Every structure is written in C-alpha cells, then in structure tokens.
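Handout, page 2. Input:
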Amino acid sequence: MSKYVAAIDQGTTSTRFIIFDHGGNIVAADQKEHEQIYPKPGWVEHDPLEIWERTQEVMKGALGKASRQSSVASDQIAAIGITNQRETTVVWDKSTGKPVYNAIVWQDTRTDVICNELAKDGGQDRLRDKTGLPLATYFSGPKIKWILDNVDGVRARAEKGELAFGNMDSWVIWNLTGKHVTDVTNASRTLLMNLRTLDWDDDLLKLLDIPRAMMPEIKSSSEIYGTAKTILGGVPVSGDLGDQQAALFGQTCFSAGEAKNTYGTGCFMLMNMGEIPVPSKSGLLTTLGYKIGNQKAVYALEGSIAITGALVQWLRDNLQIIQKSSDVETLAQTVEDSGGIYFVPAFSGLYAPYWKSDARGAIVGMTRYVNKAHIARAALEATAYQTREVLDAMESDSGVQLKALKVDGGMVFNELLMQFQSDILDVPVVRPKVAETTALGAAYAAGLAVGFWKDYDELRANWGRDKEWKPKMDSALREKSYAGWKKAVTRTFDWVE
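Output:
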C-alpha cells in the first residue's frame, strides 16, 4: 500500500524533491542549486538541461535518504506533484528534447521593448480583461516571442511544428513522462490564456506571433498527466501548480478571502477570490488559484514582488558583507534600526503595485553614520515594506480586511523580519508547522488525483501553527516609517531611457 506522495519543487535558484507522509510531514528531502546566468544587464537565464540533471539528482538523493532513514521503498510512493518557478520560458525540439536557447527567467527584462511596443495601442492594461495581467516583462508570452525573433532558424522550425514551449513545469513533465502539458495556473502566467475559457486565445497568439502548435495542452492542477519513465518509473505524475499557487493550496487557503505570503527569491501574496475572477484596479494580478480535476476553477488576486530573498543573496555574493544568507539576521540585529536608510531593490524594475520595468534599485538616505549592519537591516525591512504595499492594494481590490497573514518560504525563519512584518502590517503573522508549503501544495494536488487524500477537510486537518508574531510597533512610528518608504520608492522611477 502507498504511504507517501512526493513533489518536485523546481525553483528559481534550486530544485528540491520532498517526500511527504499522509499527515503532510516531510519524510525526506534533497536540494541542489543551479547556475544563475547573467549575459547582459537585466538578462537572467538558466540552463534547462542542468535543471533537468539537478531534478534527477535530487529525486535519487531524497529517495536514498528516505530508504535509509525510514525504510521507504519507491513502490510506496502513490504520486508525484510538480511545482515550479513560473513564467521562466523554455523552447525545445520535440524530437531531440534539446532546448534551442537557455531558459529566460521570470526576472529577465530584455522583453521591455516588445512590451512597450504592444502597449502603444491600448496601454499597459490592453490585455488585462482577457488575461488578468498587465503587459510586463515578467510573463512568458513576450519571452517566447523574443526567442522566435532572435534565435536563428527558430521561428521557421516553430511554424513547422517542430518546437515545444513550456514553463518549467512543462519542461520537467516532458522529461519525466514524455507528455507536453501544463496546468491552468502556469498557463495563466503567459499572457496567452483566456481567464474565462481556460484555453489558449487565438487573438493573443496572433498578437505575439506565436504558433499554436508550440503550446502545451492545458490541464487541471490535479489529474494524471502520465507516468514517470525513469526514476520512480510507473508512478503517476498527477499534480501541477505554479509555485505561488501551490503555496496557497499547501496553506489550505480554500475559502474566499484567505491569503498567504511566500518569502522566496521574490515575495508573492495570493488571496483566494472564489470561482469568479476579480479584476484589479490597484496594480495586482488576477490569476488562477487552482483547478482540482473536474471542479470549477478557483481564482486569486496576486501581488508579485521581484526581489526579496534575492536581495540577501546579493548582499552575500555581490557586496560580500555576509558569508551565508542566514548571517543577515545576526548582522542586522547588531543595530537598533536601519539608520534612516531605505533600500528599494528594483533590480528588475518594480512589480506590484507599480509595474515599472524602467525602475532601478536605490539606497536612499545615506549618511556617514551608516554601516553594513544598517544596510542588512534595510534589506530585510524592504521585504516587509513591499509586502505592506501589496496588502494595501489587495484590501482595496477585494474589500476584505485581513485578520492574519499565513507565511511560508525560506525567509520565515528570520525572526527579525517576521516581527517587523507584523509591526508594519499591524496584523499577526503566522508560520505553519510545515513551512515547505509550495512542495506540499503540489503533493496535495497529486495525492487528491489518485485518492491518497480524499477531500479538502483532510488537508485542512494537516495544517498546524508553528509560531505567531504580533504587532508591537507604535502606530505613529509605523506610519512615519512607511511614509519614508513610499517616498524612497519614487526615487527609483524612470532610470532606463
């Protein structure tokens, strides 16, 4: 009898394979980073073949640990779920499986010319009604167009039906099962899927000059897509959710008005809005939350922030003021505050609620008093301030006043950040017992498809509170600090000619 469900979590900086038991507890896990490629300023790429190699390595690694630690046999795994960095774009040859170019990462801004050209007719929001998204470099459609327009011979091959497009979920599933599919959550991040029909839109494909033959088949987030052919051969691959939607599902936000915030490379807040898409007037995205089998699709509002955990990596790798990412909290705690500075990390432009691809990062308010500890603290505070901007927009669009924020991701173990987050939002911040909610959400979707879990109530029963932070900051200081942040953000606008 199957006792476990596994999930591949293919993220921006690393790939993980995690095995969960029926209670949603982690049995074994393995993780490996992959290279970040920066060919030019604003360009970010990954090697898809390296990512597939790392995926196989972590699958073997976690299975090896599981068999040693808990006597887990591969035939006890009921299903595999996939969750992935969204929008990151791969085009590959259907016969050889070889990519025609590196994966263009979601943070990459090279498509700003394409987006600006499209925005000349109807503005940045011309596609919002159909897609729920603004025209922005973030999304996959313009990245596909860039590859077709700029890599020799690729457009002709695509038009002959020789090439396949996919976000990272499709790439991993293709390599695992041989099937060319995606789910509604990933498809909703391309600027090419109609929010209401849940299908590729011919007018949008024509607008971006993308052959329909390249596109994967859109499925629900929880159904059997195929079976694994290599490692875990014969096990159904039956869950697929973009990483932030997977975290929403893993946090069991199944009711309209429930929200979560994930602190990873970027920061992403999603609120369940039920079965009808809610248009945003405040710079948020209207996106798919999840679709389970034949049930109706559930929509969400999302606030996307490009740089949060990536800013800590930048302090580590570029400035080298810390040796490892976890050192940032220790350094930041050596000072009482940020010394009057604000760090606005608009390295890839500003995402929600501004959507300014021509913004660039800035440290504002510098004096000779400021040292590296103040910079570390300002970097952490930047994550909390950006989250406040998104929550303000979300409450405005939804009419829902958030009572508490469920949080997950790597940065939720940073106590200083979590306390400051609660302070600046003026609501409790709650960390669940299983913080790996992204992988857990993909496992839940996969398990539901094969009957490993029977319903939402069973999943809700698994959720448990690990720690809660409550606001302690004086309200006058909160608003003064936040006003300073809003002023600092304006200093980053319009840097790119």
